[in-house]
Specification:
about 100 residues; mainly alpha
Length: about 100
């Protein structure tokens, strides 16, 4: 159902809203995900430092490797965002989250 929906699309009954504030429960996986994120960031910084030591920034390989690192970072961050969203909706029965 959409948040502003006034009637159920299945049965037509009027939707009743509960206006209580809902407390968000912290997932038991947040600390682990934060640690993974920090470790990945540390390794990527090391990779960039190594790249700067080994290559002249004017060399074509430098830009290729830097672009590869940046693409890897984007993919990792997207995967981490999806994982955090999966964890947020986990009811303890999501076997993907458990893995």
């Amino acid at each position: 159902m959409d948040f502003n929906q006034k009637f159920c699309t299945q049965c037509g009954k009027k939707v009743q809203r509960n206006n209580r504030n809902v407390e968000k429960i912290q997932s038991r996986y947040n600390d682990a995900l934060d640690a993974i994120d920090e470790e990945y960031e540390f390794r990527q910084q090391n990779a960039k430092e190594l790249l700067n030591k080994l290559f002249d920034s004017n060399h074509f390989s430098y830009n290729k490797f830097l672009s590869s690192i940046n693409e890897s970072n984007k993919l990792f961050n997207m995967q981490l965002d999806v994982t955090r969203k999966m964890v947020d909706v986990c009811d303890g029965k999501n076997h993907f989250v458990e893995k």
